[in-house]
Design goal:
alpha+beta; Aminopeptidase
Length: 345
């Protein structure tokens, strides 16, 4: 089981090609994510069959309890997670080269929860964190997501093949709000420039202030733009009204999915429905690329009283709820692990 040599340009490109083109691909498993998280350590493990990469495990490390490192494989591995022997062998390979003070290897693949899969990992010696965690922020990544499936899933859903069918997939009032935004003169642009990021950031800060939450610094997003600029895998969408940006969204295109990752809005212009116009354009982007899924991101619960769910569900109310397996923890140091878990209670 090889460890990726970042000086081997040919193999790095093969690793990235797999992560970007495999249907299960995730941006957080791309070595570029390690560049973005430049204060984290990293190791990249891959498996080959007949000389071709068919599984990867990207692990980033950071101190999570005093003197001890968390090894986190965000939305990884990109592999057949039912092949637990393969997954364990990749973890073992990573531990051969990781610092000795790593206390945990945590994976949270974007794979549907099932009792059988959960049981299989428990029996293999993993600790799992899924249905026993009630708080949305009790996991690193939300375990419940709203997803629109372009291939038509769920009662009343049909395959989406064009923009008319996409529009009809939404709730009626959402369709009206998208049309209202256009009637009011809202125009959505997209790009991957530094100027796009700075415009996004203004609305992102406004949204964070309105919700009373913290936000990442602009340097994080400027670094993101610099790293993914020109790849076609990353886009910033901006809703303009009367020469002012009133809403925004950032999306990544990996595998069979568009991942809507960050957003912002200026609530003083709420009546012009900029966020709805942004989603319309981002969803059309996924349609144009032939994607299977558009991931709106996490929600606290699949109930109307959850604000995140309330907004996102209107675009995907035909679609089945996406409940993932959650965190699959391979524990190396039980004492450090117990201390770490206490932080999430």
């Amino acid at each position: 089981m090889p460890i990726l040599d970042l000086n081997d340009e040919k193999k790095v490109l093969a690793y990235q090609k797999f992560v970007r083109e495999d249907p299960r691909g995730q941006v957080t498993q791309d070595p570029l994510w390690g560049e973005l998280k430049n204060n984290w350590g990293h190791v990249y493990v891959y498996h080959e069959t007949a000389g071709k990469i068919d599984a990867v495990l990207t692990i980033l490390t950071i101190e999570a309890v005093p003197g001890k490192l968390l090894g986190y494989a965000g939305r990884g591995p990109i592999a057949d997670v039912s092949d637990i022997d393969l997954i364990k062998s990749m973890i073992d390979e990573a531990l051969m080269v990781l610092p000795k003070n790593v206390f945990l290897i945590r994976m949270d693949p974007e794979v549907a929860y099932s009792d059988d899969l959960n049981k299989a990992y428990l029996e293999a010696g993993f600790k799992t964190r899924n249905r026993d965690i009630q708080n949305m922020h009790g996991n690193i990544q939300p375990r419940k997501n709203v997803v629109l499936y372009y291939d038509g899933r769920g009662e009343g859903a049909k395959s989406i093949n064009n923009e008319e069918e996409l529009m009809l997939h939404f709730k009626r009032d959402y369709r009206n709000q998208i049309r209202r935004a256009a009637k009011d003169g809202v125009v959505v642009t997209n790009g991957d420039s530094e100027e796009d990021i700075r415009s996004f950031f203004d609305t992102y800060v406004m949204m964070a202030a309105a919700q009373g939450i913290t936000h990442r610094p602009i340097s994080y997003f400027l670094n993101m733009q610099k790293i993914w600029h020109g790849t076609g895998l990353f886009k910033v969408f901006l809703a303009h009204f009367e020469n002012k940006v009133i809403a925004s969204g950032i999306g990544f295109s990996y595998g069979d999915e568009i991942w809507y990752m960050y957003a912002g809005s200026d609530r003083t212009y709420a009546k012009h429905y900029g966020p709805y116009a942004v989603q319309w354009e981002m969803l059309k982007w996924g349609l144009s690329l032939g994607k299977v899924e558009y991931d709106f991101g996490g929600v606290g619960d699949f109930t109307p009283d959850d604000g995140l769910y309330k907004f996102k569900h209107g675009f995907a109310y035909h679609d089945p709820h996406a409940e993932y397996i959650g965190e699959l923890d391979w524990v190396i140091d039980d004492v450090a692990y117990k201390s770490y878990i206490e932080q999430f209670k």
